[in-house]
C-alpha cells in the first residue's frame, strides 16, 4: 500500500486505517528460526547502540574538560544514533519476527521520516567533522570553536528535518512493509516522487561521500608531503652533525620521533568512521534507487530478503560508532571505565606508555639535542 495514484484521496483525507499488513505469499521471507535469530541480534544491537552512545553523551555532559567542539559533534552523532536505536530499530525487529506491520499506516510514514531524519543528522555531523579536519590539517585553520559548533549543529538538525519531512505528509511514496521489515521508499513512476528520492539519496550519501573523500585525500597527501619534507630535513641535519663529529659520528642514529601534523590521530578516528559510513550506506543507497526506479527489482521475490539485510547493515553503524570511540579515543575509554561498576573491573589498570606531545614544527634529530625547524 503506497501513496500512489490510487490512494491520493486517502492521503489527502488522513492516515490510512490499517493495523496489520502481511508479507505476500509470493515473496520470500526468512525461516522462523532465522527470523528469531535476527530479532535477537537486533535487540542486542539496540542495547549496545543505546548504552554505548548514551555513555558518550554522558561523558561530554558530565565532564567539562570533554566539552570541546569536536566532542560536542561526536555527542550529537551519538544522540542521533540513540534516537535511531530507540525509535526505529525495535519496530523493525518486531516486523522481522512476525512478518507483519502492527503499527498502522500513518506510523509507517512517521517511522520512515524518523529513520531518514536521524540518518541525515548523523551524516551531516560526519561531514562537519571531516571539513574541520581538512581545514586544520590542510589549510592550517582551526576555525571551529564551541559556539560555531552549536550553530552548525542547530542548522544541521533543521536541514535534516526539512529533507525528511515530506515522507510523513504523503508527498512521496512510502510503502507499508508488505515487502520489507520497515517502511521503505516504494516503486513509483511519478517524476516528482523520483526527484525527491534522488534528492534524498544525494543528500544522504553522494554529496557527503564526495566531500569527505576529497577532504581525506587532501589530508593524506598533506601528511605524505610533510613526512617527506621532515625526513629530508632530518637527513640533512644528521649529515651536518656527522661532518662535525667525524667518523665517530657514523653510529646508528636514534629513532626519530616526529609529530607530522597536530590532531592527526583524531583524523584517523574520523577516517575510520567515514569508512564505516561508506560500507554501511553504499548498499542502502543502491537499494533505495533500485526500489523506486526498477519495478522488476521492487516486485521480485527476493526483495524482502535484500531489504532486511540492507536495513540491518545501516543499523549496524549505530553500534559501530561508540566502539570506535572507545578504541581510538583514550579519554573516552578511561571515562567508560569510570562508568563501569567496580565488579566488572577485574584486571588492574596498567599504566600506558606516555608519549610527550610535540608541536608540528618540532623535529627530534639523530643526537640527543632537539632542533626546531
TrEMBL record:
<feature type="transmembrane region" description="Helical">
    <location>
        <begin position="304"/>
        <end position="327"/>
    </location>
</feature>
<protein>
    <submittedName>
        <fullName>G protein-coupled receptor 45</fullName>
    </submittedName>
</protein>
<feature type="transmembrane region" description="Helical">
    <location>
        <begin position="32"/>
        <end position="60"/>
    </location>
</feature>
<keyword id="KW-0472">Membrane</keyword>
<dbReference type="InterPro" id="IPR017452">
    <property type="entry name" value="GPCR_Rhodpsn_7TM"/>
</dbReference>
<feature type="domain" description="G-protein coupled receptors family 1 profile">
    <location>
        <begin position="52"/>
        <end position="325"/>
    </location>
</feature>
<dbReference type="InterPro" id="IPR000276">
    <property type="entry name" value="GPCR_Rhodpsn"/>
</dbReference>
<keyword id="KW-0325">Glycoprotein</keyword>
<feature type="transmembrane region" description="Helical">
    <location>
        <begin position="194"/>
        <end position="219"/>
    </location>
</feature>
<keyword id="KW-0297">G-protein coupled receptor</keyword>
<feature type="transmembrane region" description="Helical">
    <location>
        <begin position="266"/>
        <end position="284"/>
    </location>
</feature>
<keyword id="KW-0807">Transducer</keyword>
<dbReference type="InterPro" id="IPR051880">
    <property type="entry name" value="GPC_Orphan_Receptors"/>
</dbReference>
<keyword id="KW-1133">Transmembrane helix</keyword>
<feature type="transmembrane region" description="Helical">
    <location>
        <begin position="151"/>
        <end position="174"/>
    </location>
</feature>
<dbReference type="Pfam" id="PF00001">
    <property type="entry name" value="7tm_1"/>
</dbReference>
<dbReference type="GO" id="GO:0005886">
    <property type="term" value="C:plasma membrane"/>
</dbReference>
<keyword id="KW-1003">Cell membrane</keyword>
<feature type="transmembrane region" description="Helical">
    <location>
        <begin position="72"/>
        <end position="93"/>
    </location>
</feature>
<feature type="transmembrane region" description="Helical">
    <location>
        <begin position="113"/>
        <end position="131"/>
    </location>
</feature>
<keyword id="KW-0812">Transmembrane</keyword>
<keyword id="KW-0675">Receptor</keyword>
<dbReference type="GO" id="GO:0004930">
    <property type="term" value="F:G protein-coupled receptor activity"/>
</dbReference>
Amino acid at each position: 500500500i503506497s501513496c500512489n495514484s490510487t490512494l491520493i484521496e486517502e492521503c489527502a483525507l488522513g492516515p490510512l486505517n490499517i493495523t496489520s499488513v502481511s508479507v505476500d505469499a509470493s515473496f520470500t521471507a526468512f525461516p522462523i528460526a532465522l527470523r528469531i535469530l535476527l530479532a535477537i541480534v537486533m535487540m542486542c544491537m539496540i542495547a549496545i547502540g543505546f548504552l554505548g552512545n548514551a555513555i558518550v553523551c554522558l561523558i561530554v555532559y558530565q565532564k567539562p574538560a570533554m566539552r570541546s567542539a569536536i566532542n560536542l559533534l561526536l555527542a550529537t552523532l551519538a544522540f542521533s544514533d540513540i534516537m535511531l536505536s530507540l525509535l526505529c530499530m525495535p519496530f523493525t525487529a518486531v516486523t522481522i519476527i512476525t512478518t507483519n506491520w502492527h503499527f498502522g499506516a500513518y506510523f509507517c510514514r512517521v517511522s520512515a521520516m524518523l529513520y531518514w531524519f536521524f540518518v541525515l543528522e548523523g551524516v551531516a555531523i560526519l561531514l562537519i567533522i571531516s571539513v574541520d579536519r581538512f581545514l586544520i590539517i590542510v589549510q592550517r585553520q582551526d576555525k571551529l570553536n564551541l559556539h560555531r559548533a552549536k550553530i552548525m549543529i542547530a542548522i544541521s538538525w533543521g536541514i535534516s528535518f526539512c529533507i525528511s519531512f515530506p515522507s510523513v505528509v504523503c508527498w512521496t511514496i512510502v510503502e507499508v512493509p508488505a515487502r520489507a521489515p520497515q517502511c521503505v521508499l516504494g516503486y513509483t513512476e511519478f517524476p516528482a516522487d523520483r526527484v525527491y528520492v534522488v534528492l534524498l539519496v544525494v543528500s544522504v550519501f553522494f554529496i557527503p561521500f564526495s566531500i569527505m573523500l576529497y577532504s581525506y585525500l587532501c589530508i593524506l597527501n598533506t601528511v605524505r608531503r610533510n613526512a617527506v619534507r621532515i625526513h629530508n630535513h632530518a637527513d640533512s641535519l644528521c649529515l651536518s652533525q656527522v661532518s662535525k663529529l667525524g667518523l665517530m659520528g657514523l653510529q646508528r642514529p636514534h629513532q626519530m620521533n616526529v609529530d607530522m601534523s597536530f590532531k592527526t590521530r583524531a583524523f584517523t578516528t574520523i577516517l575510520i568512521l567515514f569508512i564505516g559510513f561508506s560500507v554501511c550506506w553504499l548498499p542502502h543507497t543502491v537499494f533505495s534507487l533500485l526500489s523506486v526506479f526498477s519495478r522488476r527489482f521492487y516486485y521480485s521475490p527476493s526483495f524482502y530478503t535484500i531489504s532486511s539485510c540492507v536495513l540491518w547493515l545501516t543499523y549496524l553503524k549505530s553500534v559501530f560508532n561508540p566502539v570506535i570511540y572507545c578504541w581510538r579515543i583514550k579519554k573516552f575509554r578511561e571515562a567508560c571505565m569510570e562508568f563501569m561498576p567496580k565488579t566488572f573491573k577485574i584486571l588492574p589498570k596498567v599504566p600506558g606508555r606516555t608519549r610527550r606531545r610535540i608541536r608540528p614544527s618540532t623535529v627530534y634529530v639523530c643526537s640527543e639535542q632537539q632542533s626546531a625547524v
